[in-house]
């Protein structure tokens, strides 16, 4: 039977939860906002929203979320910057001392050995419970379309309705809100990209391991840019 812990009561589970693995390539941790999503920061500020799911005493999944003030006068819509934008909002609200109203789920990760058992659905249900207990009115998710071919447009891909992770959210009652066309951005020199991916970039678009979009590179500028789309969904509370 799956049970839930969080870093407020079990800070010792942070490292075991991270050792379950990560979605996508190493380069996804090199974005400008990635440090804002570090488990240490979430543990310091919102430990009740970093969940660890246990089978007995063994971690099998984790889920992390952050609270933000949304909607607000200057935030009438969910951000086009998706995952990156939500992290910036959370940082702004924390600095300004603004009360949050919405929970943003940044990640739900299930160990490979535990997939296919409905554990992700349990994690999302518990995040909804946590949002209610905290007095928040919404749970939104910048969902990463994990099955998207890197060279296919997000609009064409969504039109096929084939993404398993998006469909999982829809089966749980989540409602489509909008596309976040530049949800996660990673920039680096060509040497950095080779270090992160093992791929030497040339001019133009290159597909790299773990990417759902290509890297656009310029050898003249010694620069590679990865821009990944996500899809905003809202889970009714």
From TrEMBL:
It is an enzyme of class 2 (transferase). GO terms for molecular function: acyltransferase activity. Coiled coil: none annotated. Keywords: Acyltransferase, Transferase. Its EC number is 2.3.1.-. The keyword Transmembrane does not apply. It comes from the Bacteria. Residues 47-145 form the N-acetyltransferase domain. This is GNAT family N-acetyltransferase. It comes from Amycolatopsis albidoflavus. The lineage of its organism: Bacteria, Bacillati, Actinomycetota, Actinomycetes, Pseudonocardiales.
